[in-house]
Amino acid sequence: MTWRGLALLPFIAMLAPCASAQLDITGSVAVQSEYRYRGQNPGQGGAVPQATVNIDTDRGWYGGAFASAMTIGDLDGYKLQGYAGYAQRLRGGGSWELGCSRITYTQAHDNDFSECYGGLSFERGSTRLYYSPKYLGYDARVLYGEINTFYPVHPRFNLVGHIGLLRNLSGGYFPGIPTSSRYDVRIGIGIPFGRYTLQLAREHVQDDGRRYTMYPVHPPRQWSLGLSYAF
């Protein structure tokens, strides 16, 4: 079975229990000051709309989809991502999860790829480890680990943080993929009001000089701004 087929297994497995399970559908729409993915911006910048839909069942299975406008170099298009997995609560609090996703780019299908992940979630944070055998469509086996956290300083004010590390297990040269590893960091504030959340963050990515095909050069440190509405 190919890795594309493996990435679809959670979606298939989710269909059977969903027939009699209780479903909870949530989502959000957002506008971000620019599209960023694991510290990198593939285009010239500029505000982009995004949307997410999640489906959770009372049996632990979940799935969802994410869409974002984006550019790769000067090619306009969309990033589309479908994902599914299984999650269960831990006795001591929090939960664990396993899942897979498929990512496709409407203007650059050569960069489509699949990955699987495992993670832990707690009241004020989460961590995940992703593995892809053909990251961004290249013959590169890649791990990406991340930690996300927030701290409620005030009912109207949250501190948010993220740190990630991309690790190339194959070595060798691939556009935009580090020969060894590359980190990205984000720290900011989130201001909720009703179903809306305004977030301002300072982002930093390790500048290793490795660029994706057609990607313009961006400063390693910059600000980002986003507004989201949850439903």
Mind explaining what this structure looks like?
The chain is mostly beta strands and 231 residues long. The chain contains one helix and twelve strands. It has a twelve-stranded antiparallel β-barrel. Strand 2 and strand 3 form a beta hairpin. It starts with a helix and ends with a strand. The model has no long low-confidence stretch (mean pLDDT 89).
Q: Number of helix segments?
A: 1
Coarse morphology: globular
| Number of strand segments | 12
- What order do the SSEs take from the amino end to the carboxyl end, as H and E? HEEEEEEEEEEEE
Could you tell me the radius of gyration in angstroms?
Answer: 18 Å
Report how far the terminal alpha carbons are from each other. Answer: 37 Å
Extract low-pLDDT stretches: none
Give structural attributes.
globular; 12-stranded antiparallel beta barrel; 12 strands; 7% helix; mainly beta; 231 residues; 1 helix
Present the secondary structure layout.
Blueprint: H1 3-18, E1 23-32, E2 48-57, E3 61-72, E4 75-89, E5 95-105, E6 113-122, E7 125-132, E8 142-154, E9 157-168, E10 181-193, E11 196-205, E12 221-230
